[in-house]
Specification:
The protein has one domain: Up-down Bundle (Amino acid/polyamine transporter I). 80% of the residues lie in helices and 0% in strands.
Length: 373
């Protein structure tokens, strides 16, 4: 049970990250019920993708990450594509965590201590890079503690917002923004990068891994919808891009500190686990040294931040649609090759439709950015 809870905490802590703060904003544009429809559909797809990837991890000997599995079943050419997509996805996510995490630290501490957003982003980065260097034990312990605080704060938000809630804000809808939420929602439900870590924690216990994946994604989806319900029902069209500053303005000073603590926890836990995942992928699957892999995994997002890439809604939308959607397509083809090699078994015909879904999603996101934004 202890390992199950540890694995669940790491998985949920990885999934619930910066994506949660973009959801209320996209809901304020497209509409709450549009978001609900997206979640009903994408949650099921996310569970299917994570389960088939989990099966590949359990049934394959050796320590790998996605590029390593792809090389074993699909060949070296596909491996290069996989590492590009994995690197793109994790770097984009880590960049978003740096942007929002640094802003939340500034909002929380700058009134008392002063300092710019850059200073607080560097503080966020330094602590995260140190823990990534330490490895999974320190991260799993942090995840369990932080998730307890996370859920407590979510309940307090609901109680604080109850008196200011306006149901009319939930009925607004604009079909012009129908494609807008796709990338952000797909990004928010992705935890495939951490599945090999779950194998390390749980061993080869298939039942426990399946339970962790299904329950973890469902917990994340429910938390997301609950969070969107609270923020959008309180702020309406005044919902800010990162959710918390607009929420704080709507409820007054009493919620400000708690809101930013909530934000820091959500960003920091995911920054840790995804940084570790990219580090191990470069280390295990590409033969780079452990320390050089750590350096690339941690410092590439920082360099992009210093280069001026700081619009986090755009970053997570594009990362979700292109990188994570592309990873989904590769995992499906990987599963097809895995079944043929291991079991001489054909893939369920329903899974053939999933690549089409991801390709349509990429088209929708491109359409939004080209013609609507």
């Amino acid at each position: 049970m202890r390992n199950f809870l540890k694995a669940l905490a790491v998985f949920v802590g990885t999934i619930i990250g910066v994506g949660i703060f973009g959801l209320p904003y996209v809901a304020s544009k497209a509409g709450f019920f549009v978001i609900v429809l997206y979640f009903l559909f994408i949650t099921g797809i996310a569970i299917a993708i994570h389960l088939i990837y989990g099966k590949i991890c359990l049934e394959t000997k050796g320590v790998h990450r996605l590029p390593g599995y792809v090389e074993q079943y699909l060949g070296n050419g596909w491996k290069k594509i996989a590492i590009l997509l994995t690197g793109f996805a994790i770097t984009g996510a880590s960049l978003a965590y740096l942007i929002v995490g640094g802003e939340f630290l500034k909002f929380l501490f700058a009134p008392a201590f002063g300092g710019s957003a850059l200073i607080y982003t560097l503080l966020f980065f330094c602590l995260g890079a140190y823990l990534i260097f330490r490895g999974i034990k320190s991260i799993s312990q942090v995840e369990i503690s932080f998730l307890f605080v996370f859920f407590t704060i979510l309940i307090i938000f609901f109680l604080k917002a109850f008196s200011s809630f306006n149901m009319a804000y939930l009925t607004m809808m604009d079909w012009k923004f129908f494609a807008f939420p796709y990338g952000v929602i797909l990004f928010s439900l992705c935890g495939s990068a951490i599945v090999p870590e779950l194998k390390e924690i749980l061993g080869n216990d298939k039942k426990k891994l399946k339970k962790v994946i299904i329950s973890g994604i469902l917990i994340a989806a429910v938390c997301y919808l609950f969070f969107v319900f609270i923020i959008l029902g309180t702020c309406g069209q005044n919902t800010s891009k990162e959710a918390m500053s607009g929420f704080s303005l709507s409820l007054g000073n009493s919620i400000i500190g708690l809101g930013f603590i909530f934000g820091i926890i959500a960003c920091f836990t995911s920054f840790l686990t995804l940084g570790l995942t990219l580090k191990k992928s470069l280390w295990y699957d590409f033969g780079l040294s452990k320390n050089f892999s750590w350096f690339i995994a941690c410092f590439l997002p920082l360099l992009l931040f210093l280069a001026g890439m700081r619009e986090f809604i755009d970053i997570i939308g594009i990362t979700g649609a292109l990188a994570i959607g592309g990873e989904g397509v590769i995992i499906i083809f990987l599963y097809r090759a895995f079944l043929k090699k291991k079991f001489s078994q054909k893939m369920n015909p329903l899974l053939y439709f999933l690549p089409i879904f991801f390709i349509i999603g990429i088209g929708l996101q491109i359409f939004y950015f080209v013609f609507t934004k």
